Amino acid sequence: MARLPKLPSLLDRKIYKTGQTRGADDDQIFQNRVGRNSTVLIPFAVWVQIPAIRALPYENGFIVLVPPRDYFETEGQDLTRHELEIGVNALVYFERRDEWLQFNPDQYGFTPPTSRTAPLGGHFAARIANTTSENDARINIGFTSTGLKGAGIRLYEYADTATLGTTRIQLEAAFWHAVDAEEKMLTAGMSEDEIRRRRTAVLENATQLGLLDYGRLEETRILNSARELVCPLCLEPISAAGFLSRLPQASGRERHDLTVTEINLFHIQELAYGVFNHRPYNLGWGHHHCNVVCKDAGIHPTLEWMANVLRHNRMLN
């Protein structure tokens, strides 16, 4: 696609960030807001229970996290039947203090890893919270250095580079179906000619890539029957202004670093182990508060829960 007029920076950044994972702090094993094609962390139980995830060619590799009891007691030290080897594509991962005390890695000569890709250069990582009642300090070992902070991303957040590209195209195409998209882009600094050129090119590209099937977009609650962008949960038409305005903050509780806008990325089918739902026709734009309510439960279970709440409050027959 030829070079196009630029979108307003806040909107451009929002579309770009759909290819990044959710946040994580230093006390978690996950990386903080990195690309969805980064190294994938796979819980050992998921690796064993869902064989299909082993066949996926993860672009930046994977690491299987094996609980100490599974390694030292249940499975023993032979993981080859699961196509795993500690220090190569798997780590013993400590989260519980009692397991740390029982299976302390020092007694086995285990060392922390030095790489996210095979071979990992070490055998274990640990993220164990402090317990104030016992005055036990927090234990954070492995993937804590500045250049190697966080071991990888959550398995269900993964998407390859090609998928990230197509989803961004479809998400911008969906944006241009907001009820007042052109009007709001004018007030945000784009000219009429820039809006026409960008909107036309994006919609044509989306059509050529098979990303603008209006029947599917309506079925998946991304657009309505009038081809307007809607929130997938409440189905209210979305104003483009929500992409450019930050959430209002309660008086006295303001935060200078708040970056959440009124409209957020919305997964239609929720993220879950065993499926990869960051994909075309499964991503829309929705209200921040609707997204918070929905969380990881999924749209239809959330609607059922909301209906029950209304019935209990005698607001539904």
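(the above was protein one; protein two follows)
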Amino acid sequence: MQGETREKFGLLLGLVGVICFSLTLPSTSIAVEYFGTTVVGLGRTVVAAILVAVVLIVRKEKLPSPRQFTSLLIVAVGAVLGFPLLTSWAMESLPVSHGAVELALLPLATAGFAMFRAGEVPSLKFWISSIIGSFAVIVYALHLGFGQLQFADLALLAAVVILGLSYAEGGKLAKELGSWQVIAWAIMIGAPFFIIPVGLNLTTEMLHAPIQAWVSFIYLAVVSQFLAYVAWYSAMAMGGIARVSQIQYLQPFLMILFATVFLDESITLFTLVIAVIVVFSVILGKNAPVTKKGSVSKTRA
């Protein structure tokens, strides 16, 4: 595949990945009503592990080294345990459009952790953009919570921080282990620990859940937890990390759109305005110059 064609295909894969991720919160909102937080948050990984195991065996992937295993633990805590569990719990009480606004801070959190992991010093521009985005999200959460933050809001913000660290660690590790292999091994690390808690929360009533609940859960397990990551990491490898990552700015708006289409949520002008402010702050912060420790040279977040 020629360079230009490869880059365009990478951008297309990136768009596919973002669309897949944008359906995660709506699917979680539907599934958690019938299966509960534990089954949806952790059960998706148990199911995904079956698919991942087949792929790893067929491709005869070698085991990660002990040093790589340490980084994979960080990825697993964020992308496999923390984020799915916290968002599942939050979606029991919050509308998807609410979650979309708060998760819009994820690229900024990822950029921040990537800076620190790379030994870089964030510029004033980065901190200003972080304050703008965070303040907008807090104002939005307080407005919808009638003057106080709900625990579900705190759970979503914690999910952003945890997944941001996980993304940064995974992006660093992907350079030596491979792109999709990072999430694949993270799933295999976490799944064995989730089998017992998931099993204890299974009930016969779940068998009678409507088809949309089952479709949502399967989507979360197969697509959100694994295939979307394959598309996303492959896209960055083909189209370039900087270019492809820009597509992620569409995610909060796609989430809001899907919430309107599939969940009949009413979207207010206030929600859209806050989403625009947050996305603008993320773009500003992600492109802020940073300096390497002990160096006067500059790079980009």
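Reviewer note on protein two: The CA atoms of residues 39 and 202 lie 7 Å apart.
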